[in-house]
């Protein structure tokens, strides 16, 4: 892109006449594209339009789609919206991918640190800590096997002893 004077591609530096000349379009066309929301330049203190290098590139793309591809302005607007959305989604995927890789690395480091020396034959079993589970604000401690009640039909609400095969 055009990068003049160390300013970024998004810096609004060109007045409408310069942007029109750089893009090969008439200034009135730039105003129409602004009204339609195709290319929205920045505004100066006096409310005059100021186009960035990225805006000029976008003006060229709008012109190409219109002249070479035969797409109407409403179609071009939709294409540009979808391109912006795709760019945002790609950026989101990029960040999520980096977060996932960082999480995988952290898990791998913790796993390596927790393993210590290589396991000896038959030593693959690891102790598991008992945990508490919170359900809707109420803490529930898992029952031990020897503390479980006898789950016979009829002991729970809604059970019917008539369906019990041991009844006969």
Task: Output the keywords.
4 strands, two-stranded antiparallel sheet, Multidrug-efflux Transporter Regulator, Chain: A, Domain 2, 168 residues
Topology:
Blueprint: H1 16-23, H2 27-36, E1 42-43, E2 49-50, H3 53-67, H4 73-115, E3 133-135, E4 138-140
Antiparallel strand pairs: 1-2, 3-4
Helix pairs in contact: 1-2, 1-3
Q: Can you describe this structure?
A:
It comes from Nocardiopsis endophytica. It holds the Pfam family MerR_1. This is Helix-turn-helix transcriptional regulator. Keywords: DNA-binding. InterPro entries: DNA-bd_dom_put_sf, MerR-type_HTH_dom, MerR_fam. The structure is a single chain. By secondary structure, the protein is mainly α. It has a domain at about 15-70: Multidrug-efflux Transporter Regulator, Chain: A, Domain 2 (Orthogonal Bundle), CATH 1.10.1660. Helix content is about 45%, strand content about 5%. The chain is built from four helices and four strands; from the N terminus they run H-H-E-E-H-H-E-E. It has helices spanning about 15-25, 25-35, 55-65, 75-115; strands at about 40-45, 50, 135, 140. A two-stranded antiparallel ribbon has the order 1-2. The protein has a two-stranded antiparallel sheet with strand order 3-4. Helix 1 (about 15-25) packs across helix 2 and helix 1 crosses helix 3. It is elongated and about 80 Å long. The chain starts with 15 loop residues before the first helix and ends in a 28-residue tail after the last strand.
